[in-house]
Amino acid sequence: MSEWTLTRTRLVGGVWEGVLARQGTANDLPEIEVTHLQEPLDGVEVTGNATEGLWQVRVPVPVERIADGVQTFVIRDRRTGDVLDSFALIAGDVLSHDIRAEISLLREELDLLKRAFRRHCQETM
Question: What's the number of domains the chain is made of?
Answer without folding.
Answer: 1
